[in-house]
Amino acid sequence: MPLPQPGATDPRVIRNFCIIAHIDHGKSTLADRMLQQTGVVDGRSMRAQYLDRMDIERERGITIKSQAVRLPYRGEDGHDYVLNLIDTPGHVDFTYEVSRSLAACEGAVLVVDAAQGIEAQTLANLYLALENDLTIVPVLNKIDLPAAQPEKYAAELAHIIGCAPDDVMRISAKTGEGVPELLERIVRDIPAPTGDAGAPARALIFDSIYDTYRGVVTYVRVIDGRIATRDRVKMMMTGEVHELLEVGVISPEPVPGKGIGVGEVGYLITGVKDVRQSRVGDTVTTAQHGATQALGGYRDPKPMVFSGLYPIDGSDYPELRDALDKLKLNDAALVYEPETSLALGFGFRCGFLGLLHMEIVRERLEREANLDLISTAPNVVYRVLGDDGVELVVTNPSEFPTQKVDKIFEPVVRGTVILPSEFVGTVMELCQQRRGQMLGMDYLSEDRVELRYTLPLAEIVFDFFDQLKSRTRGYASLDYELTGEQDADLVKVDILLHGDAVDAFSAIVHRDKAMAYGVMMTGKLKELIPRQQFEVPIQAAIGSRVITRETIRAIRKDVLAKCYGGDITRKRKLLEKQKEGKKRMKMVGRVEVPQEAFIAALSTSDTNPKK
Amino acid sequence: MRPLSIYVHVPFCASRCGYCDFNTYTATDLGEQVQRDTFDQLLISEVQLAASKLGADLRAVDTVFFGGGTPTLLSAKALVGVLESIKSEFGLRPAAEVTTEANPDSVDQPKLDQLVAGGFTRISYGVQSAASKVLKTLDRTHTAGAAADAIVMARAAGFAHISADLIIATPGECDADLRDSVDLVTGAGVDHVSAYTLIVEPNTPLARQVAAGVVPSPDDETAAHRYELVDQLLSDRGFTWYEISNWARSGGQCRHNVHYWQNDDWLGIGPGAHSHRSGVRWWNVKHPRSYAERLDAGELPIDQLEELTVEQVRLETMMLGLRTAAGLDLAAVDAIDSVVIAKLIADGLLDGPALADGQLRVTVRGRLFADAVIRDLTN
């Protein structure tokens, strides 16, 4: 019996599924094992974590961009099947991308570390999968670990999904134990795709990546009809029409073919150069006799967190611009525009989906373009209603109105924290401090709790991850999704150095926290800025009202007493060194501030979710 | 022909002071035949070698300065012997200035008499302070009384000029202590005072004491105040300021140091001594043993040499000139930003009226910020 070929595969033998797992719970290892056991990759050419392509992903152990691999599989019943493994991004910032990947599947393998239990992000993605009516195959991984507690976590999973503990599979992706049974279970439990082969073509874009050599590679799942080479295809949301240069499947390298049909998963290459022309969530149809009704669920990526990005060496500005332009080709969610800061020079105001997205962009810029960057404290998007009824969207503290306003709205999220029950008190305290409203609390098992809160996004952006980790010794996990906005008593706190506001340090904060921010920032700057020939006040102010002040005492002398006999060289070298130091100074009014002071004041580890 | 000076370094001390990071040793025998008693012979051999290498540039010297260390740990005969060799190899200009540094407790009347008889015209005592608690902090072995006696003896011996070094703003020193110190040396009859702010040099016993909290860290507030005080006290007593750390009665300026600040030529003799000739600087190997080995081999004991770039010469000229009361002749340096000058005058760091005469000169406040002034002007 010939193997089912791309473009000529009976939907009944297709199983489209993804793996939902927390970072480090073994998703990539399991995917590797499936590739190996289905024979698409032999042991020798096996590269660990085959599916995570970019270095950065491999190093961080997370998957940013999903891919789809077609695995031919001969079942125990002797029939040939096609398993399409659709990889999903694993982080909170990419919820929308995850939802599109899920929409391309009929089932999901839920992988949970048998030594750690389910984490908040996994739970969130599980709920997304359930909303998409996916069939869930629950799996405990790493049962070979001495610390594994399969009984306990099977019960926990059963409780969450509503199945019997015995239905939870136990595997070790590392050793391969249980993986053949899992493949069988996928074939048995996950429904085959259904669709109308005779209807106009409709394919869901669930991923879109930019390849230097090929241009944009678009990953699709065909819902109805068929997409074939030399078709002209139309992106239904953007309305753009492209020549289809190549259609194929990934197995695990790209295999060009004649086309793909109902239920199949593959890639399209149209020669476009920008992922914005081929957007995740959009529907691909044929230009002629195309569908009129797009598949539902498309959303424009919406940046929620903004930060200024500046080259530490001002002369790197053009390189930063080029690097952003290049990155944008592969990142539909990234937005940026030039910005000038008194303190930091020329840079860009960048918008991100969230904190992780911000970190990833920054790291890629630093790594791929070899740039040293400094980022200002991130802030969220505010909607300001003026007294005159005019609405203003504020993405930068400098845009915050100085006159009286009617209302200010800030984005709020529904946050889910999963944590050992012993830390419930301290985490509730943290959420209270961060203006959280408790929504509910559930025991997942006798010692693990799920806490749900409504929280202002701004509070999460500001060192919430760090606090959560340190308060729970790293045992808590957090997930959040945007749920709307609320009006709040927000103010802009400016930091004044010798009377001059330093733009990079301005922040929009809740009125109750203005003092704390002011005290923290002025205190930090007092330590970082060298003494000047005159006294330098450092003030925090709301509008014209000073709320806190520190003072840098004036330096009283700056002279070396002695020229050491004839050793003029020593004195000259000292001066040369001092002159070098002076070059790195930036003037804020009359105050000389070393570049390092700005960097140190802004690199609050506070804003870094990976720490 | 530009004046030539000679500096002679004597790397011995009777005991080591906690603040000192100079090239000096307390042992009398440094091994490999390097001994304090015969060290004069090494110095003489370097004088002879240096003279022989100078060729057409060989000329009579205007000033000689014996520094250390404690040069007076050598016998008067030895010191005079080295001076004699300089006289015979180079020649001395008429009215040449010949100085030796001395510790108050390393001299007696006969020794001072012999030095004057041998051609020394000036003596510079390391008095440091009149306050015994300050002397103790500084590990000085002499007493205030001994310092006064030594100055009086030097006058009796017939030195034309007598100087005293003071260290100001030592932790524990108070204003009254400084007043006493100034009164002690001026009362005993010096015509020159050098007052240096205490610097905690790295890797000295003092630095360790400060790090351990045994001695409080000197603060710049106090140092600035004491500097202003010593300037006032000396002015009141007829002394005139002429370099950051130096004051003199009329005719009492140290010509040797003035040559340094004018970027004139000088030869450094002895371990670690620095030399300068027409934009080239070099310095000798630091340790007396390697110094002796090089001389034994018939070589000049030069460690490193640097040829100054135009930019470096300019920087040094400005750096040295701006530290002096004479100031910097604007005509001698080009391309100074007039906006910077105007700002420094407005900030009270440069003397406005002096600018009208074509001189850049620091004010009293400007002296305390001389390094900042130099940085601003050379940027």
The radius of gyration over CA of chain A amounts to 28 Å
SS-derived structural category of chain A:
alpha+beta
Instruction: Give start-end ranges of low-pLDDT stretches of chain A.
Output: 56-66, 605-611
Shape estimate of chain A: globular
What does this structure look like?
The complex is a heterodimer of chains A (611) and B (379). Chain A is an alpha+beta fold. In chain A, 24% of the residues lie in helices and 34% in strands. In chain A, strand 18 and strand 19 (345-352) form a beta hairpin. Chain A is globular, with a radius of gyration of 28 Å. In chain B, 47% of the residues are buried. The longest helix of chain B is centred in the middle third of the chain and has 17 residues, at 220-236. Chain B has 379 residues and is of the alpha/beta class. In chain B, the strands form 3 sheets. Chain B has a 9-stranded mixed sheet with strand order 7-8-6-5-4-3-2-1-9, with helices on both faces. Chain B has 2 domains: 4-261, Alpha-Beta Barrel (TIM Barrel); 310-378, no CATH class. Chain B starts with a strand and ends with a helix. Chain B is built from 15 helices and 14 strands. Chain B has helices at residues 39-54, 76-89, 109-117, 132-137, 144-157, 175-188, 205-211, 220-236, 255-261, 288-296, 310-322, 338-346, 352-356, 364-368, 370-378; strands spanning 4-10, 61-68, 92-102, 122-128, 161-168, 192-197, 240-243, 246-248, 265-269, 274-277, 280-284, 302-307, 328-329, 359-360. Chain B is globular and about 60 Å long. The chains are: A alpha+beta (611), B alpha/beta (379). Chains A and B meet through helix 13 of A and helix 8, strand 10, helix 11 and helix 15 of B.
How would you briefly describe this protein structure?
The complex is a heterodimer of chains A (611) and B (379). Chain A has 14 helices and 34 strands.
